[in-house]
Amino acid sequence: MSGTLYTTEILRLATNIPHLGRLDAPDGCADKRSLTCGSKISVDVRLDDAGQVQDFAQMVSACALGQASACLLGRDVVGKNLAELEAARDTLRLWLKREADGPGDWQGLSVFEAARDYPARHAAILLPFDAVIEAIRKARR
Predict the structure, then answer these.
(1) Closest listed residue to residue 130, CA positions, set 89, 102, 97
(2) Helix%, strand%, coil% for the chain, nearest 5
(3) Cβ distance 108 to 65 under 8 Å?
(4) Which of 75, 78, 105, 115 has the greatest CB tally within 10 Å of its CB?
(5) Stated pTM of the model
């Protein structure tokens, strides 16, 4: 095991989740749940004409890892498009499984270093990214 799972930084992020709430008249919504831990997230997005996230809101009922991930997602999601979010999620997934050298370019994801030793926790970390991707896909239909 590489270290403490719930670090001070994880707990700090978990208490500072941006964009909490729901959007009025979103373009796309998604509700996701982790079957392994029961974490839940609901995401609303509004997209601009280029398909980038223009506005974002989330409701999070998750473990500290899922909350920390929602914080990191929420900090930088506005202005991102579907391809950028899929790439961030896919790189994060590979890194968690030790199939990539780093967590990618998304700011702050290295905070999950110790979680790489706990595969049952990976779904909670990926949950916010999965939710926003699903919301964007629904908005584009």
Answers:
(1) 89
(2) 45, 15, 35
(3) no
(4) 115
(5) 0.95
